[in-house]
Amino acid sequence: KKLIWPGGSLFITTINKTQLSYALGIVFSEQIAGIVPKGTHTWEKFVSPEKLESILEPNGLSVQTVAGMLYNPFSGYWHWSENTSLNYAAHAVKSRVQEHPVPAEFVLKGETEQLRANAYASPGMHEELKK
């Protein structure tokens, strides 16, 4: 079953795995400010753009764009940014030819978390990435 056809796009939004994202995403937003409920974020599920690319590329997806995203809790709006240290969006395109897909479990070398695909991925791809 094909989740993304050759030439098709995959859009993923997620949280980068940095000290800053831990401090603001978990400590501040969950424990101090209460912007989101405690336990909303799991540090082990945060993924860097480099790790995301290392999962996608062996599976025939070429990352085209990575853009930072910043949330303003006072206005309630998201804004694009060059800074990817907190949240980011990635756009990848499925190659026309794929030799042998590599399961993400192999790429992650035993890590329990794959990705948190939040936006625009098909439900099937979201489930595949959660394995």
TrEMBL record:
GO molecular function: 3-demethylubiquinol 3-O-methyltransferase activity; polyprenyldihydroxybenzoate methyltransferase activity
SUPFAM superfamilies recorded: S-adenosyl-L-methionine-dependent methyltransferases
NCBIfam families noted in UniProt: UbiG (TIGR01983)
Protein name per its UniProtKB record: Coenzyme Q3, methyltransferase
Species annotation: Prolemur simus (Greater bamboo lemur)
Gene name of this polypeptide: COQ3
